[in-house]
Amino acid sequence: MQPHVMKAMHDWRISWDEQQFAAQQAFTAAFPALTPADKCQCFGPTLRWQKTGEGEGKVCLDDHGRATIEFERVPKAAVGQAMKETWGADWFDEGPGGFAEAEPGTYHYEDEQTYAEYEFDVHADGTVTFGIAYVKVDDIVTILDELEQVLAEHRGA
Asked: Count of CB atoms within 10 A of residue 23's CB?
């Protein structure tokens, strides 16, 4: 490879590494419980969290710069309020009261233009397991921030 091409590739790699680090900083600024973990199927930076009574999960960035969040057993009221603040209610056919009032079941949406995938499993025990995959970093940061604010309110109550 020509030296100027090698330098351009090196510069791009450094810039990409900085962008991944900045995404991780944005994720943890929005949801401080996230901590670095081994890489997952995203093949990029991965952050995980676990908190009794609030759930557990991961956030990762794939090698295309798309973010994925997979959270398990998060209180339904918290997910419902965060989702309503982010996208409004009934975007996923969960009903006019949003996920906070959704019946147990699976709610799924695929965006054909962006290839983003959204899946919410509402459990009878009052929790939700959800995944939002292949979206922009700022979309994940937005939902993380909303969810953190709602969980913090419940912690303080």
From this structure: 22
Alpha-carbon distance of 140 to 59, in angstroms, equals 8
Nearest to 148, CA basis, from 49, 23, 61: 49
Global pTM reads: 0.89
Side-chain-side CA neighbours of residue 113 (13 Å): 0
What pLDDT is recorded for position 157?
57
Report the Cα 84 to chain-centroid distance in Å. Answer: 15
**φ and ψ of 110, to 5 deg:** -120, 130
Count of residues making up the chain: 157
The Cα–Cα gap between 92 and 77 comes to 16
